[in-house]
Amino acid sequence: MKQLEVYFNEIKAGILTEKHPGIGYSFQYCKDYLDSPMPPISATLPKRTDAFYSEYLFPFFSNMIPEGANRRVICRSLKIDEQDFFGLLEAMADRDFIGAVNVRRITND
Asked: Where in the numbering of this chain does the HipA N-terminal subdomain domain appear (predicted)?
């Protein structure tokens, strides 16, 4: 199981989890974020207390990763399968993403 923290404008919004490589994902909003006036991170992931589950990586998150030639170059250099969307998202974590939402590796501080 792998997890990433999801942030909206530098405020922790929730946790994205890959339960099984390539299949089985969940997204769970943090209670503090749910109680805040902050908007949902996506129209397809409205604020709610229950986790979202999907067989595939949620389109909102898969749209955050590079496409085409950029994906091929990054995957080749990092030795990541081009179809491992979560692995690629994890490799891109802690970097600047376009827009208000970004992901970070979970640290044990």
From this structure: 4-103
Alpha-carbon distances, residue 4 vs 37, 45, 69, 76, 89 (angstroms): 23, 16, 25, 22, 9
Report H helices in the chain: 31-35, 59-62, 68-78, 85-92
Instruction: Say if pTM beats, i.e. exceeds, 0.85.
Output: yes
Note whether 103 and 7 are within 8 A (CB). yes
**pLDDT tens by residue, 73-93:** 888 888 888 888 898 888 888
Residues listed for the chain: 109
Q: Are 25 and 19 in contact (CB under 8 A)?
A: yes
Compute how many other C-beta atoms are within 10 angstroms of the C-beta atom of residue 87: 20
